[in-house]
Structure formats: structure tokens, C-alpha cells
Amino acid sequence: LIEVAALEKVYGAGKSAVQALRGIDLTIRRGEFVAIMGPSGSGKSTLMNILGCLDQPTGGRYRLDGEDVSTLDVYDLADIRNAKIGFVFQSFNLLPRLSALKNVMLPMLYTWENKPNADEREARAIAALEAVGLGDRVDHRPNELSGGQQQRVAIARALVNRPPLILADEPTGNLDTQSGEEIMSILHRLHTEGATVLMVTHSPDLATHAERIIRLRDGVVQTNGAGPGG
Amino acid sequence: LIEVAALEKVYGAGKSAVQALRGIDLTIRRGEFVAIMGPSGSGKSTLMNILGCLDQPTGGRYRLDGEDVSTLDVYDLADIRNAKIGFVFQSFNLLPRLSALKNVMLPMLYTWENKPNADEREARAIAALEAVGLGDRVDHRPNELSGGQQQRVAIARALVNRPPLILADEPTGNLDTQSGEEIMSILHRLHTEGATVLMVTHSPDLATHAERIIRLRDGVVQTNGAGPGG
Ligand SMILES: Nc1ncnc2c1ncn2[C@@H]1O[C@H](COP(=O)(O)OP(=O)(O)OP(=O)(O)O)[C@@H](O)[C@H]1O
Ligand SMILES: Nc1ncnc2c1ncn2[C@@H]1O[C@H](COP(=O)(O)OP(=O)(O)OP(=O)(O)O)[C@@H](O)[C@H]1O
Ligand SMILES: [Mg+2]
Ligand SMILES: [Mg+2]
Q1: Is the beta carbon of A11 within 6 A of some atom in ligand 2?
Q2: I need a labelling partner for B150 at 20 to 30 A (CA). Which of A39, B168, B186, B195 fits?
Q3: Alpha carbon distance, N-terminus to C-terminus of chain A
Q4: pLDDT in tens, A77-121
Q5: Which residue's alpha carbon is nearest to atom 6 within ligand 2?
Q6: Do A149 and B40 make contact, defined as CB atoms within 8 angstroms?
Q7: B20-37 pLDDT, tens digit each
Q8: Helix extents (H) in chain A
């Protein structure tokens, strides 16, 4: 359950200040599948970074699961990010010196409850890479992978812990239509199993997979979409 | 004029060798507008890097403007890249410590004939950034820009010297439909003015802007497209 009220984010100060978010109001219920669309530069990644507890707003309020995120300390936030949220970054953010396999195994190192042992971590990472069609690329490092393959490693890493909240920032921008549809069916499956999915996309076709489409423009919500939350 | 015969590219060796290109035959005439499509991992970026003189094939031959590229030395290749080719990279490759403006000014430093002075370089870079809708972001560094804005800086940088050969590797993957169409109209205008354009894209809609579509699959040309060259 995500509740955002009058959310603001300003970068910089004075004459060169950029108002990336200018008062966002949003409610997303547990288990929803929401697409976020809007022009380049309209604030989508900025919003996702705040929802993913990777950045702080400069105004307004964000409650996640009923908790005001601004009251949480650094350790609580790290806990939430590791245990509750799977984030697919627009620019992938893979560790360049680790193989695809090691990159995907990383989130499992930070789980405190029921931490899997090394063999199990490896087995689950391999399964996650096979699910995105990269079973034969597990030992490649990011610079030995195509753009779309790097994007799929980022997806596998975000999903390997089966997080209850999935934030996917343009997960198919570097993928052909078929690979993009395969990723969508993975997201669908996780959604049917109970995950809440927020997906930024520029593709109107892929947005139709969601139950609800939110459109941003110049840092505000332009349309809040039909659907249970809106 | 691009002539490619039996082009091969193998990464690595032995058991883990990857045959990224397995014998590509292609002819592209001056002034053509060609779209290159194919599944993720099929060899598109590998082919583009060889055509852009950024990488060497491991087999076969590449003639550019009648010259066998494998006979050219390091200086000739650098000359060709700077004077003749504008490359839009799939992962942008912007210099992180330079502003958008300085990034776009960079290619003009390397032109030997008719090198513009500093004021003219700055004026042309500003014009290029305005053409892609970033006139108000010229002093931002890459990490102060959205994903699609970074992509547009990469596009502006590739085009600022008005090169005769434009290689664009998925130039609109991070752009909304409208921004993508604006980029396509820039490519169209340069094409009408005489440029040869090769564009990798995953979007069937954008591919229709080209005169000819080449499809790769597993490192070979699957279809060579209708049109003057093929
Ligand atoms: N340095 C490398 N070492 C080993 N394999 C590599 C290397 N670079 C690329 N590859 C492999 O070569 C193949 C082709 O890569 P390429 O980047 O050309 O694909 P692509 O068609 O551009 O894909 P995408 O649409 O995902 O960008 C891929 O299967 C990739 O894993
Ligand atoms: N560190 C920063 N400093 C200054 N401005 C910034 C910074 N980061 C982002 N911006 C600006 O904030 C605005 C919103 O950026 P954001 O990354 O959220 O856009 P977006 O909707 O994700 O766009 P895209 O579709 O291109 O990825 C942009 O106009 C951008 O220039
Ligand atoms: Mg973004
Ligand atoms: Mg590629």
C-alpha cells in the first residue's frame, strides 16, 4: 500500500533549480498492477526512486505500508529495500566486475530471515536468469552482454527474492517485442501470486498489460487512471 | 557506400567462445535510410561497432567508401570516425564530468578541416541541443538528466558535425512516443540532405520510417529488405 501526498522534489537551488515533482498525490493498493507513463523528463524515475526508498522528497509525505518513510532511519530503509522492494533501474546499475550470476545472487546476501545458503543462492540465481532467457550467459560480465541482455540481468536481480513490491523503470526499453512480452508474462505471473507492480513504460502496448495507467506531465499527475485505486 | 562480405565476430575462445556474427553479407548505398532489427543478442550492436570502425571483425571483409577498413591504421580510423561517422551508442557513453553542452561540443574539437572556433562550437552545440528539446538543460551533467534526456544528448553529439554516415543504435529506446517521433524527423531531415542513416530499432513503427529493413537473427542476416540496395 503506497500513499503519496503533495510529494515534491527539487534538484539544485536558486536560479538553476529544477522542480522534478511539483505535488504528486497517489494511492496504490496492495496487489495492483500500475503502469506509469509520461514524456521524457516528466518525473517518472524521480518518483520511482522516492517510492523505492532510494531518495528523499523535498516536500510532501510518503507512507509505505502505513509507515511514514521520512521517520525511518538508514537501517530501516535498507531493510525495506532489501526485503520488500525489487527495483529494476532504467540504467541497469549492474556491478561491472561481477558476472551476471553474481549480480543476480547479490540481493539474497542481504536477506536476514531465512537466508539461503550458497548453493541455494546460486541455484535460484540460475533459475532467475533462465527465466529471462539468459541461461547460457550466466558467467558473462555486463560488458560482455548486449544492451537487452544487461537489462534482463537487472530484471532477474530485482525479482530473484520474489519481493512483494516490484518497481520496474522502463524494463523493456532495450528489448525486441518478443523478449518484452516474455518479461511482461513474468511480471504477470508474480502479480497473480500477490506482488504489487509499478512499471514505468513508454510503450502504449505494454501499458495495456496493467490494470491502471497513471500519466505524469511536468512533475504532476495528469491522469490517475481507471481502476480500484484511482 | 558500405560493403560487408562474410563478416564474422567471435568473442572469447574455446568452450566459452560466442559467435556474435557468423557471416554477414550486406551492401548499403550512399544516401540510404536503413533500419536494422532483430532479437536481443542477435548481433546488431556488434555489427554497428564494426561498421563504425570502433571494433575489428575476426573474419570477412568490410569496405567503406571503397577502402578495405582492415588496411587502415589507427590514425586513418580515428579520422574516419571523427569526420565521416556520427555514432549514437545504445548506452549513450556520455562523459560524466562534462555538461551536456561540453559533451556535444566534443566532436567539433577533432575536426581538422574548417575547425570552428570556440564561440561557433558553442553556438552549434546549443542549436543541436535545442533541436532535441534540451535547450534548458545545456549545463546539466549526465547524472542530472533523465534517461531519455541523456539519450537525446547522445543523439545531439552524434549529429552536431552533420556527418555523412549516421549510425544510431536504438536511439529512441528511452523516449516517449512523441520525443521518439521528433528524433525521427531530425534523422529524416539529415537524410533528405544527403546523409546515409543506419538505425537499430526494436520498434516496428519507427522502422517504417526507413526505406529498407534488415533483420538479423543469431549473427546472420535473416532478411535483407526490399529497396535499392537489397
Ligand atoms: N565482450 C563480449 N564477450 C562475449 N560475448 C559478447 C561480448 N559482447 C557481446 N557478446 C555477445 O554477443 C552477442 C551479440 O551482442 P550484441 O550486443 O551485438 O547484440 P544486440 O543485437 O545489439 O542485442 P540488444 O538488442 O540486446 O542490444 C550477444 O549474445 C552477447 O552476449
Ligand atoms: N540531479 C539532478 N539535478 C538536476 N535536475 C535533475 C536531476 N535529476 C533529474 N533532473 C531533472 O528532473 C526531471 C525529471 O527527471 P526524471 O529522471 O524523473 O524523468 P523521467 O520522467 O524518468 O524521464 P525519462 O522518460 O527520460 O527517463 C528532468 O527534467 C531532469 O532534467
Ligand atoms: Mg526515467
Ligand atoms: Mg544492442
Answers
A1: yes
A2: B195
A3: 13
A4: 998 998 899 999 999 999 999 999 999 999 998 776 777 888 999
A5: B144
A6: yes
A7: 999 999 999 999 999 999
A8: 44-51, 74-84, 100-109, 118-131, 147-159, 177-192, 204-207
